[in-house]
């Protein structure tokens, strides 16, 4: 505890006008109701290879006065931005990355970002932009001559940004309006923003910080549009920090959240940059002024150029999990402490004992474990895929990885929006106070649905991938994608799937549950094929037919595919715990059962049409509710195993010590002008006197 | 347009660094695709009796410089609070209410609040607290001697608050800890907050404004707890505005939203108030110190004492509709203007033409019409119920009204949370900018789920009411509650319900659709009865059995009951339009079809178990998607009929003129420090120099 903070606490204790608080033992009592679990095992499996770094950086943040959410809550834009830069500098200086480190282990960037994000995802977002979006673009698309830019970025000499999105174009990257026209006389590019909608928009770090950017612009050579290409260009003078001549830039102003990140706009006005600014690994302009590219197909080329987004999307998956974990930490502890109603004048009951509250929170805990297991999986797979991609940018492994990541980016952020909103509502008025910090997690989950590829657009990528595989399969080419090994092309076989269970106990069977998840994908695949065949003749072309087979079909197919992967990864995770500790594993395994059964219940229509009967769906519902009840009592132990320390969590109502009531009183009494009369008392009196009392 | 605002616009135009914008005709083009509808008819039916006042107050607000969202967006707490009080004073002075007006027409308060809330629900919330929660409590529970307090409140001489919720108790009002101990010697009450958790918490207007409060406290007479009673008491000195001796009060500080409302806390320390502060219509203490009450049952008495919440809950229903309407206005216009992707190098396509975007938005439009129709219904019914309640506080009509209102408060706020979140996501990055104002509507919907009775607790009230009626019916007493006239006690009859349709067209049948909604209630009722019978012997007592039959059963039953009422009221509303204009009515009627079909689709498991087969559910899905497509093209006309004027909407991306891009640029360029270098440039340079470049 910093001296300053200790003084503040002491002071608040001395000046508090509230009655003296007794120690609140509610949380401890709730915890004592069930057996402890092996917390270290849970944490080690849950965090995987990131675990040692998490412990290290948690300690570092906890012992630095730079990290203090109670101070952040009232900070306005500019002081907040300053603080975030300081935090970043402080942590990065002792955890510096280099090109060589990244080449050796691509998990290192994500690991550092994950640790930053545990404290605050404004801080990690700031760095995602620089260390992955900006830098990965140069690493992926640049050549030896760009090595200096790479090294400068790793040393924070340059601060980078990622200028892709424009005011008029986001998802449709091919439609970007910014042009980079090659001038062979000077061997320069002339960059222009022809219209207001061409302005690069909401670009992280452009508002105030970045001196460099990875620019995406249409390359024009000899008057011919060669498609969108990436450039690395300076935007601010290194010494004066003023925009360079030909560059207009500014701050995009107030946002729903994330004001600590200086999203800005960027306009170019005949801005000339030398040839070497082109990231020319895939496309070059020869010294005699001819364009050439190793990837002929424009669309494919663009896809590869967006490779810099991969680690950004992984950051979304990881960030969604952090939002869920923090929110559930707060809401579960709240629910164990908060008591309401009693029977026959007995003691009041912790609200977590109510079925409704259990059902509101516990399924999200299962989903959170699912998302985390996929975060680990995505990181591991990235290691394989990246090395393959350097050699062959068009490899199948990348296509599959891209489809999985697209689905996962959608699902994780959607799950997080639902979970954080539920936690907000489940904590009532206290959760609506800023000191709960639930708002940060909800808003952060919200923006995760939008950036790094809009969710609705992305999930189509998964559907597209599945259909491409199926088309090949119909041609007799075996499906080799491991994530689709279970696809069944024979509709009769899918229809013949009947589930054989007549008791709740029979449902706790991992083979059966995985089959249920796979069945859903197969069912939706065949439904989608049929719908697409029906729509084909109805519409002008495949573009329209495809777009009109999204709702209830292809969108659901993409999601079911992603959720099936989650179920499998989650099973791997819980079995990992089981291997190390039987008793703890048995508790954690219930999260897997619950994850699948909740998905089945929420899609009961699909299962009832063919696979289930009504009694079976009622058994699923019973099992779901029972699992929620059983897990509720263990959930506080599970949370204690993986929760961030109180200082990092920074929630007045979510502390591990259970002193929720006295903590929120402290937070409120420490806030600005708490006991002051209104600054606008004269106005109040004026209103009072405006109407005469008859 | 105020002079100041005009100057700002002019200035921004002169100093803009952006390329010059062409006029954007996208929205006009979208509108021109379909026939105009009769907007006046739609508005008149939609707003019902409130319509003239809405037009009047919209004009008043539009012509006053006090109402300007572009200024509000950067205001900090205290200036915002000042502005809200000014706005309130300005509008109320020319729309003053009195006790007599309210007695004659109980819609007048809600009408004024609705109009205020169109501009900003911080402003209306401020006034809900005073004019309904505070004042209705006195009107309902006070006697002739309290008339002066009533008149003072209507003249804003007093500003009131509603001190019910405590830090430790919200939903369980019977568990409140604040005590009012009767002292017969002085015929006073001594008010105390024994523990920190007894502090009145998050009480609107207590932080800075209120000099009075309606206090809910346990009445202690002769050492005996007589249950929670209501008092009207002063809390601040009228002249100095300082807390009165024995009262401690302060501001609850920063919230997720609503910082313009000064929610505060209130602690009492042997605070003595005279006997007449007791609102003594139902309970009195005789001059010889004996407690008596006309309602013997404590629980019933408390229920009646909470009558002051009724108009607060109506305000939630109305407020939810406003949140949905503003958000959909913004998101639909955005979707007509924003273009993305094209086929074969054709022109880019407005995103509202995509099935996915239609399905994201249009069902919420149908739900919004449903909520509005129920707002009208609740207002009309309140007129009847209130007069009956004055004579007989225990009348059946009140019990039914309470159950409908409880369900509606839950459903409207849940619908609004979902709709506003979807609109936020559906507007991408621009929707994440504060200038979209989508955040206000989302946050406002969010708090609507919590206050005026937590949603999860409230929906149980509806289930309880239904079960009470059923219990009576099993005893042979006819169900007289109009909202339950269709209940079928015979399970076989429910099970025999089969739906006869085999084409999409057959689904557009209002009788069939209403039957589907009723069937769902009956089905869930019988499922709940069976589950309760199963749970009875499993649990210790009915308290536990009831609480463990909530998820999938009683909670769903309550919601299905509420949604069935919505469907019926919506049908009445759309038929009201049809009567006045066939062509327009035919368009609006699709909203009714969509409302029901979407509900059926989302509960497909329920229908598939007994009523439907798989082909039928696919027809429902087809119809749903087709209705979304057809309505999408008319949706902009519908929105134009009911949308608030641009100045009241205050969204840079939702203006009726369709100039979304130039408006957001204007908003950004007008924001603070847009073109300034960071105030923290030295820190940035320090971070740059922390690591050496090798």
TrEMBL record, chains A, B:
One of its GO terms (cellular component) is peroxisome. The lineage of its organism: Eukaryota, Sar, Alveolata, Ciliophora, Postciliodesmatophora. Its main location: other. It is found in: Peroxisome. Residues 307-466 form the Acyl-CoA oxidase C-alpha1 domain. One of its GO terms (molecular function) is acyl-CoA oxidase activity. The active site is at 452 (proton acceptor). FAD binds at residues 165, 204. Belongs to the acyl-CoA oxidase family. It comes from Blepharisma stoltei. Residues 511-687 form the Acyl-CoA oxidase C-terminal domain. InterPro entries: ACOX_C_alpha1 (IPR055060), Acyl-CoA_Oxase/DH_mid-dom_sf (IPR046373), Acyl-CoA_oxidase (IPR012258), Acyl-CoA_oxidase_C (IPR002655), AcylCo_DH-like_C (IPR036250), AcylCoA_DH/oxidase_NM_dom_sf (IPR009100). It comes from the Eukaryota. Pfam families: ACOX (PF01756), ACOX_C_alpha1 (PF22924). Its cofactor is FAD. GO terms for biological process: fatty acid beta-oxidation using acyl-CoA oxidase; lipid homeostasis. Keywords: FAD, Fatty acid metabolism, Flavoprotein, Lipid metabolism, Oxidoreductase, Peroxisome. This is Acyl-coenzyme A oxidase.
């Amino acid at each position: 505890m910093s001296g300053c903070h200790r003084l503040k606490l002491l002071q608040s204790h001395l000046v508090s006008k509230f009655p003296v608080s007794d120690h609140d033992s509610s949380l401890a009592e709730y915890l004592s109701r069930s057996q402890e679990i092996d917390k270290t095992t849970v944490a080690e499996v849950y965090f995987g290879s990131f675990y040692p770094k998490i412990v290290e950086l948690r300690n570092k943040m906890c012992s630095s006065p730079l990290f203090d959410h109670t101070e952040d809550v009232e900070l306005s834009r500019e002081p907040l931005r300053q603080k975030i830069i300081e935090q970043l500098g402080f942590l990065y200086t002792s955890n510096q990355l280099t090109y060589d480190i990244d080449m050796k282990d691509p998990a290192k960037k994500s690991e550092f970002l994950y640790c930053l994000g545990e404290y605050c995802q404004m801080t990690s977002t700031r760095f995602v932009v620089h260390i992955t979006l900006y830098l990965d673009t140069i690493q992926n698309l640049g050549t030896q001559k760009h090595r200096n830019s790479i090294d400068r970025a790793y040393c924070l000499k340059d601060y980078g940004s990622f200028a892709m999105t424009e005011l008029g174009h986001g998802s449709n990257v091919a439609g970007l309006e910014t042009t980079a026209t090659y001038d062979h006389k000077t061997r320069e590019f002339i960059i222009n923003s022809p219209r207001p909608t061409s302005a690069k928009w909401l670009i992280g770090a452009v508002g105030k910080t970045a001196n460099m950017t990875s620019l995406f612009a249409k390359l024009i050579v000899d008057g011919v549009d060669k498609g969108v290409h990436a450039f690395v260009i300076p935007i601010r003078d290194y010494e004066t920090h003023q925009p360079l001549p030909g560059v207009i830039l500014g701050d995009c102003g107030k946002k729903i959240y994330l004001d600590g990140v200086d999203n800005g706009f960027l306009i170019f006005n005949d801005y000339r940059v030398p040839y070497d600014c082109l990231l020319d690994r895939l496309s070059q302009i020869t010294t005699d002024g001819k364009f050439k590219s190793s990837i002929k197909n424009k669309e494919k080329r663009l896809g590869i150029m967006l490779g810099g987004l991969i680690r950004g999307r992984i950051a979304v998956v990881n960030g969604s999990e952090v939002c869920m974990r923090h929110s559930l930490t707060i809401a579960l502890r709240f629910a164990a402490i908060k008591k309401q109603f009693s029977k026959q004048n007995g003691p009041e009951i912790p609200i977590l004992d109510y079925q409704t509250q259990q059902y509101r929170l516990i399924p999200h805990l299962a989903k959170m474990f699912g998302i985390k297991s996929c975060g680990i999986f995505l990181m591991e797979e990235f290691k394989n895929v990246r090395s393959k991609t350097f050699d062959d940018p068009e490899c199948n492994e990348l296509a599959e990885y891209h489809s999985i990541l697209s689905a996962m980016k959608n699902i994780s952020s959607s799950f997080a929006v639902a979970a954080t909103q539920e936690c907000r509502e489940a904590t009532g008025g206290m959760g609506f106070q800023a000191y709960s910090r639930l708002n940060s997690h909800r808003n952060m989950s919200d923006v995760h649905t939008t950036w790094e590829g809009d969710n609705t657009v992305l999930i189509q990528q998964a559907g597209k991938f599945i259909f491409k595989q199926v088309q090949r399969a119909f041609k007799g080419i075996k499906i080799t994608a491991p994530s689709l090994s279970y696809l069944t092309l024979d509709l009769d076989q899918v229809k013949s799937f009947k589930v054989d269970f007549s008791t709740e106990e029979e449902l706790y069977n991992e083979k059966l549950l995985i089959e249920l998840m796979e069945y859903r994908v197969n069912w939706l695949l065949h439904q989608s094929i049929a719908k697409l065949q029906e729509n084909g003749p109805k519409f002008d072309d495949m573009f329209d037919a495809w777009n009109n087979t999204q709702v209830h079909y292809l969108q659901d197919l993409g999601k079911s595919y992603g959720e099936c992967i989650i179920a499998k990864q989650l099973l791997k995770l819980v079995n990992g715990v089981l291997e190390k500790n039987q008793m703890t594993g048995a508790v954690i395994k219930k999260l897997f059962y619950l994850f699948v059964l909740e998905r089945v219940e929420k899609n009961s229509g699909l299962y009832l049409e063919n696979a289930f009967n009504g009694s079976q769906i009622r058994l699923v519902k019973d099992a779901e509710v029972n699992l929620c009840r059983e897990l509720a009592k263990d959930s506080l132990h599970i949370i204690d195993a993986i929760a961030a320390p109180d200082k990092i969590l920074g929630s007045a109502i979510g502390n591990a010590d259970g002193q929720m009531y006295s903590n929120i009183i402290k937070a409120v009494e420490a806030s600005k002008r708490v006991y002051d009369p209104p600054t606008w008392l004269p106005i109040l009196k004026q209103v009072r006197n405006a109407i005469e009392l008859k």
